[in-house]
Amino acid sequence: MSSQNLSNFNKNDIGDCSHLKVGIVCSKWNSDITDNLYDGAYSTLIKLGVNKENIISYKVPGSFELVYAANKMSRKDVDAIICLGCVIRGETSHFDYICNSVSNGIMNLNIELDVPVIFGVLTDNTKQQSIDRSGGKLGNKGVEAAVTAVQMALLK
Questions:
Q1: Is 19 known to be catalytic?
Q2: For the chain, how many structural domains are there in total?
Q3: What is the predicted pLDDT for the residue at 3?
Q4: Is residue 63 included in any domain, yes or no?
Q5: Pairing relationship of beta strands 80-88 and 55-60 according to DSSP bridges
Q6: Whole-angstrom Cα distance, residue 84 to residue 133?
Q7: Domain containing residue 44: CATH number
Q8: What are the pLDDT digits (tens) for 60-97?
Q9: Arithmetic mean of pLDDT, 10-36
Q10: Can you give the pTM of this predicted structure?
Q11: How many C-beta atoms lie closer than 10 Å to residue 2's C-beta?
C-alpha cells in the first residue's frame, strides 16, 4: 500500500478534458468509504474540465458487480470508466475471492474493450486504512482514479 498522498495533481499537466465523457461505477458496499471515493472522482473530473452532463454514474451493490456494470457502461460511448469500491479484509477468504475476481475482471475489460477501465477499488486490511485512502491522510484514491481516467482517455 502506498504510504504517500498521491492525490495532488497539476491541472495544466493533464490537457483539455472538456470533450470527454466519463463513466463512474461505484459500489454501495462500505458506502461511508465509497461515497468519499465517488465525491473525489466526480469533483476532480469537474476541476479538470469535464462537463457535468458528460459524467454518467451507476451505483451497484458491491465491488463484485463493478465489472458487469462497467461492461454495460462501455456501451454508453464513454471515453473512460472509473470503477470505485472498497473491500476490507475479514475473517474468511471471501476478501481474496472478491479482490481477485474484481481485479481480473477489470483487467479483462481493459483487454476486451476499446475504453480504459480504471481500477479504483480499495483492498485494505483495516477500516482505518480505507479511511486514510478515501480522503484521509493518504489522500483520496477517487481523485487519483479520475486523473488516471482522463489521462488514459486522452491517449485515444
A1: no
A2: 1
A3: 52
A4: yes
A5: unpaired
A6: 12
A7: 3.40.50.960
A8: 999 999 999 999 999 999 999 999 999 999 888 888 89
A9: 93
A10: 0.93
A11: 10
